[in-house]
Amino acid sequence: MLMLGYIILIIAILILSYALIILFLTLISIRRGKFYFPNLIKPGLIVVEGLLRSIWRALRLDDKELISFTIRLRNQMNHDKFCAVPMNKRAIFLPQCLRSAKCPADLTTEGLVCRRCMRCGIGSVIDQLENDGRMVFIIPGSTFIKRMIKEYHPRAIVGVGCLLEVKEGLEMADSIDMIAMGVVTSKDGCVETTMEWEKLLEVVELVPGDPLTASSLAP
Ligand code: SF4
């Protein structure tokens, strides 16, 4: 019984030490704007996420900063593979909250079909997003993403959303071995959100050799 207690204690100490190492690497990466040991941090952020968040909060650090870092890290790690995917094998998912409250588009089984009425930013950018055969979906929920992936077999996706949506979307993509990049909207909410379209275009148009600049790292 005593032995079992020791084993549990040792495991707990090991997990805590691992979480502290990940925390330290995450903090210096954020502060210096550079990713240190990304291959170690990425699984660490998944395995000890709950514990890491508790320590993060106990240190009174901003939760958003950790989520934002996770997104930037995943984008950075997917960058080279994403650049290598042909344009016509990329799918872009826009959340329907970006449209105008007076949007006349109809909801179909593949999301909203934009009528280019120009009441919102989607109208002026959608043709450029669709250039070179890229697929664009304006969706009311994340369930559409998996369905469209099954239907159209893109080899890489770009997901747009608020911080939490993008984080969860990138995790989902990882779980199904899909190359994904996340771009965060500039205004949160459920209606008439906004985003920096240049940032999205910069990401969707990435080709081999292009760097992932600070402006295209979300957010
Ligand atoms: S531009 Fe498209 S998405 Fe935006 S409001 Fe008009 S129809 Fe809707």
How do the strands and helices of this protein lay out in sequence?
Blueprint (H helix, E strand, L loop, with lengths): L1 H31 L5 H10 L1 H10 L4 H21 L6 E6 L11 E2 L2 E2 L8 H10 L4 E5 L3 H10 L3 E6 L1 H13 L3 E6 L12 H8 L15
Parallel strand pairs: 1-4, 1-5, 5-6
Antiparallel strand pairs: 2-3
The site of iron/sulfur cluster has 14 residues, from helix 5.
CATH architectural designation of the largest domain: 3-Layer(aba) Sandwich
Distance between the termini: 50 Å
CATH class of the largest domain: Alpha Beta
Order of helices and strands: HHHHEEEHEHEHEH
Provide key terms for this protein.
219 residues, binds iron/sulfur cluster, Rossmann fold, two-stranded antiparallel sheet, alpha/beta, single chain, four-stranded parallel sheet, 2 domains, elongated
Describe this entry's structure for a reader.
This protein has 219 residues and is an alpha/beta fold. The protein has 2 domains: 2-61, no CATH class; 87-216, Rossmann fold (3-Layer(aba) Sandwich), CATH 3.40.50. It contains 8 helices and 6 strands, in the order ααααβββαβαβαβα. It has helices spanning 2-32, 38-47, 49-58, 63-83, 121-130, 143-152, 163-175, 197-204, and strands spanning 90-95, 107-108, 111-112, 135-139, 156-161, 179-184. A 4-stranded parallel beta sheet has the order 4-1-5-6, with helices on both faces. The protein has a two-stranded antiparallel sheet with strand order 2-3. Strand 5, helix 7 and strand 6 form a beta-alpha-beta unit. Helix 1 (2-32) packs across helix 3 (49-58), helix 2 (38-47) packs across helix 4 and helix 4 crosses helix 7 (163-175). The mean pLDDT is 88. Residues 99-100, 103-105, 114-120, 122-123 line the site of iron/sulfur cluster (SF4).
